[in-house]
Amino acid sequence: MKIVLAAALAVLATPAMAQDNSDKITIDVGKAPWGKFPRLASRVDHTDYAALSLLVEDTLSTRKCRFPGQQARHFDITVPYAVKIEADGSFSRILVSDIGCRQIEQLVGYTVFMRSRNGEFAPVNDNQARWYSGELNINLE
Fold first, then answer.
1. What letter would DSSP give residue 89?
2. Domain span at residue 82?
3. How many Å apart are CA 27 and CA 50, to the nearest integer?
4. Strand 75-85 relative to strand 130-140, pairing
5. Largest alpha-carbon pair distance within the chain?
6. What is the pLDDT of residue 26?
7. Cα separation, 20 vs 96, whole angstroms
8. CA-to-CA distance for 131 and 42, rounded, in angstroms?
9. End-to-end Cα separation, the chain, in angstroms
10. Which of 14, 110, 36 has the alpha carbon at shortest distance from 138?
C-alpha cells in the first residue's frame, strides 16, 4: 500500500520542509523482515515527540484506530520501519510496518522522511545500496 502525505502533517513541519518545493511525498507501507536488516544509527534526534503523542492521542480518542491495551490517554506504540540507502548515501525509499492504522503509519513515514532529510541519521559508508531498519516509539503515560 502507498500513502501520500500532505499538508495534514504540517504541524510537524521543520524549516527544511519549508525550503522544499514539494508538498507531498510517497511512503511505502508493508511487511518486511525488520530484524534481518542492519540497524540504522542516529546522530541526533530532533523529533517533536510531544507533537507526535498528541496526534496519536487524537487518533485513538476518535477511535480511528484501536490497539489492544492502548487507550487515548495511555499508550505505548512502537512501529518498525526500514530505509533504503543508496551507494552514494542518499535515502531512496522508506518502508513503514503495516500496523493497521493509516494515521500512525503516516506519522511514522513522515517523521522518518524528515529525519533522513535533516541528516539526523549517521552516515553509512557501504558503497552499495542496502536496507536499514529502525523503530519509532510514541507513548503517553
1. S
2. 2-140
3. 23
4. antiparallel
5. 46
6. 61
7. 23
8. 15
9. 31
10. 110
Task: Give just the sign of the alpha carbon dihedral 37, 30, 102, 90.
Answer: positive
Output the nine-digit C-alpha cell for 86.
543508496
Q: In a structure prediction context, what are the per-residue pLDDT tens digits for the chain, which is 141 residues long?
A: 444 443 334 434 433 333 342 344 568 999 999 999 999 988 899 999 999 999 999 999 998 899 998 999 999 999 999 998 888 888 889 999 999 999 999 999 999 999 988 889 887 877 888 999 999 999 998
Amino acid at site 28: D
Q: How many domains does the chain have?
A: 1
Q: How far apart are alpha carbons 103 and 22 in whole angstroms?
A: 21
Q: At what angle do helices 49-61 and 102-117 cross, to 10 degrees?
A: 170
pLDDT at position 104: 96
How distant is the alpha carbon of residue 10 from its chain centre? 15
Please name the residue that has the C-alpha cell 476518535: 62
